[in-house]
Amino acid sequence: MKPLSLSPDERAPMLDQLQDYLADELGMELGQFEVEFLLDQMIKTLGAKFYNQGLEDARVAILARMELATEVVYEMEQPLS
After folding, report:
1. How far apart (Å, rounded) are the C-alpha atoms in residues 66 and 58?
2. Packing angle between helix 8-26 and helix 32-75, nearest 10 degrees?
């Protein structure tokens, strides 16, 4: 599996939002380098948890669909004479 990462187009608005949040809510004025470092650390620390949760959500959804498909197959069975 490749490491979790963001494209530059995904990363730029997140950096701006994080920088704004830190300034507005916490009164912390961080420069671009510090905010990039913080975002990288958050991805490293939290990314796998959210990725794994997404996989678990997908697994549950797939299993539900498989159960429905199995029921449809059973309904298609012909009675034995």
Report:
1. 12
2. 120
Task: Output b/e per residue, 55-70; b: 16+ Cβ within 10 A.
Answer: eeeeeeeeeeeeeeee
Question: What stretch of H or E contains 67?
Answer: helix 32-75
This model's pTM is above 0.85: no
Q: 76 phi and psi, to 5 degrees? A: -80, -10
Instruction: Say if CB 36 and CB 22 are below 8 A apart.
Output: no
The tens place of each residue's pLDDT in the chain, 81 residues long, gives 778 889 999 999 999 999 999 999 999 999 999 999 999 999 999 999 999 999 999 999 999 999 999 999 999 998 888
